[in-house]
Predict the 3D structure of the following.
Amino acid sequence: MKTWGDPLRFRVLRLNNRVIRASGTVSLDYELRFAEAGVGAIIASPGVAAGPDHIAAVQAHGCKYLLRISLPRSSHRVLSGSEIDETLGFFAEAARLSRETGADGVEIDGGEGSVVAQFLGPGTDERLSASRGPVEQRARLIREIVRAARGAVGRDFHLQVRLGVSSVLGLMAASTVQVVHWLEEDGIDAVHLVSEGHHPGAQAEASFAFATRLVKEAVRVPVLRNGRFETERSIQSALADASCDAVTLARPLAPARRDEVALRPAA
């Protein structure tokens, strides 16, 4: 097996390896450097204004390009029917435009600070249907968003979701495994789990790996795992410990020089 793992096949998408750049920058040049360095895919942050030419330049290196779609937290504790319709319309239209722009897929953002996370977390007030149970109640918005986006792009386009995990207990409290099962029914192709929170449990790599492994063992879709991967050995360990199908980098590996993106995998 190569240093960065074997190719990874989703339902309609294939990556050359299992290392993905989860962009935290709005620099298109920086994205291109990661593509040149050999990552299997780039997940562009919502702030990246990527046009067809940039996406094609990334893809020319054999690197897939996904666009993350996100809406920030709402100032409202309860969403009205019209606000829900506007939210669904936003995600559907953004997904459609992403496909038309030439992206290989989209990622629905349910991470910290997003409107999805706001209503997905435990303790959220009932807002849609009093007849539904608490977990199903909280998951309704993300499920409807996924259905709307899938309807806009069709079945032959990659669609995944990004969800935050604060700890193993947070995973259980948010019923993340059950939510992902429902999202599988709604048509997602992968789930991207990211570590959130500033307490020691959320920052502990072993704890987060255990939490992502629980999800991976319970669901059918590939699981992408974010983490503090600063060396190729840390990537190898993550890919070998059954906690994920691919890793996502928020930073370069330890560079030989301050201005060098040291990412080229060994053969």
